[in-house]
Amino acid sequence: MDPRILDRLRCPVCGEPLAEATAGTARALRCPRRHSFDIARQGYVNLLAGRAPHVGDSAEMVAARADFLAAGHYDVISAALAAAATRAVQQLGAAGPEAAALEAYPLVVDAGAGTGRYLGAVLAALPDAVGLALDVSKPALRRAARAHPRAAAALADTWQRLPLADASTAVLLNVFAPRNGPEFHRVLDPAGTLLVVTPDADHLAEVVDALDLLRVDPDKADRVSGSLSGHFTPVSSAVHRVELTLTRPEVATLVGMGPSAWHTDPGALTARLAALPEPVRVTVAIRMDAYRPR
Predict the structure, then answer these.
(1) 129-138 b/e with 16+ CB inside 10 Å = b?
(2) CA distances, 127 to each of 87, 104, 106 (Å)
(3) pLDDT tens-digit profile of 162-193?
(4) Which residues lie below 8 Å from residue 64, measured CB to CB, with a gap of 6+?
(5) What is the reported pLDDT for 232?
(6) 180 Cβ neighbours under 8 A, 6+ residues apart
(7) Burial level of 43, CB count in 10 A (0-12/13-18/19+)?
(8) Is 194 helix (H, G, I), strand (E, B) or coil?
(9) Where are the alpha helices (DSSP H) in the chain?
């Protein structure tokens, strides 16, 4: 593991620093109190302190997401995150000597990283940065571990204490994922930035209506702001929109990669998909909010 990332990690049991250890072909991270965490052969490290309450996205959902993102359909999100993260890192140097030291090799953490595509896009825009993908889904982490040469991946429940040192993170990404306000605040540098991406009201509206999928909560923006208000101050907000032109199989992949995959009857979905006129025009509408720690 890149020592610049390892230096920021902490044991999820006791909070002590971690070091890499090798015994034969087995690799692990260990702390001075002998807590040990295996590094899987696919490259990610298991930093769970106990068992996770859920297993996250299935292999089928992750494969669908990887295919859909690889086709560039959500590149609007990658571009928005890369631009905002670049601005955030550029501002670190003006925030004092400690933040300037963090700017030398900023750590970008993606909490709920999925396949790691968004983290990879941000690292591609920040040549001096390193990245850490956190997720509870093993199928997702197998891909996230290969998302970028300067990225590492760890199995972690983002609802629990994050396996990171205090104030260790320059930019924290949270894309369509749960938000743990107290922990995000703890691990972010005081001059760092939290970037939260959520669906806007008309996100995927055309297929949501036609296929009877889960709808965006109309109070979503207020709930996101409320979950972070005690720990963060909003600094900017922007909505990004693009219209996609998809085939029916691509729409099926889109449905299969998101939360509707858990809640949609396969037979009914197949019938509704067959009734869609091709090409299918779909609006991608996301809100990106930037926050600073209070």
Answers:
(1) bbbbbbbbbb
(2) 14, 11, 10
(3) 999 999 999 999 999 989 999 999 999 999 99
(4) 253, 254, 256, 257, 261
(5) 94
(6) 111, 158, 159, 162
(7) middle
(8) strand
(9) 3-6, 59-70, 75-92, 97-104, 117-125, 138-144, 181-187, 205-211, 220-228, 248-257, 266-274
Q: How far apart, in whole angstroms, are the C-alpha atoms of residue 151 and residue 133?
A: 7
Question: pLDDT tens, 21-72?
Answer: 887 667 899 999 999 999 999 999 999 987 777 788 899 999 999 999 999 9
Residues 130-157 pLDDT 10s: 999 999 999 999 999 999 999 999 999 9
Tokens (6 digits) for 223: 């709930």
Count of C-beta atoms within a 10 Å radius of residue 61: 20
SS3 260: helix
Domain 3-293 CATH assignment equals 3.20.20.220? no
- Using CA atoms, how far apart are residues 46 and 138, in angstroms rounded to an integer? 9
**For residue 83, what are the CA distances in angstroms to 9, 234, 254, 293?**
26, 17, 25, 20
The residue ranking higher by pLDDT, 61 or 227, is 61
Give the orientation angle of helix 117-125 with respect to helix 75-92, to 10 degrees: 50
What's the start-to-end Cα distance of the chain, in Å? 32
Taking only the tens place, the pLDDT of each residue in 74-128 is 999 999 999 999 999 988 866 666 665 566 789 999 999 999 999 999 999 999 9
Q: In which residue are the tokens 């199995």 written?
A: 155
CB 131 within 8 A of CB 109: yes
For the chain, the structural domain boundaries read 3-293
